[in-house]
Design brief:
201 residues, Transferase(Phosphotransferase), domain 1, 2 domains, six-stranded antiparallel β-sheet, three-stranded antiparallel β-sheet, 29% helix, globular, ATP-binding, Ser/Thr_kinase_AS, serine/threonine-protein kinase, transferase, Kinase-like_dom_sf
Length: 201
Amino acid sequence: MADESAIPVRVGHYELVRTIGKGNFAVVKLARHQITNAKVAVKVISTRALDADQLRKLQREIDIMKRTAAHKHILRLYQVMQSSSHLMLVTEFCAGGEIFDQLVANGRMTEVTARDYFRQIVDAVDFLHAQGIVHRDLKAENLLLSADLKVVKLADFGFSNYFSRDALLSTWCGSPPYAAPELFEGRHYSGPKADIWSLGV
């Protein structure tokens, strides 16, 4: 688990308020802009804990987030900052939390809500595929909601990659409950088709 003791209280113009998520090498903080008071999320990544391959994948994740930030249903990356030991990604803050947490708290959603959310998710995934990008980790935990619970934002591009229409992918990615059968079988797979399977789940 990421160590929070080395994380500063302030990053650039942002005051880090509290922890809202943790991973092996990263901590996500709710932050406040000191001038505008705008709330953002800051993902603080310990770069010293990453090897060369992990750093390369992190750079790819950032590149993909920059390319897709303009889409209304994809989490927007505002800024990237770096220190000697950390990389910090400043993104929009989705106060509604994860769709997964909403399901745990409230149970099954209505058909109307499910249909509206699904339309927004498909819109985001279709945009990714049109840009030659596959997400490869579509799941309820990576779908964030606005404060009014009406707008869905696709997040977490750690497994995302570029693809070409005539080439198959081979890397096992994603979460088992949402993964397409061909991944379990160890076969090469179409990235977009694997995303579509996860959408169906």
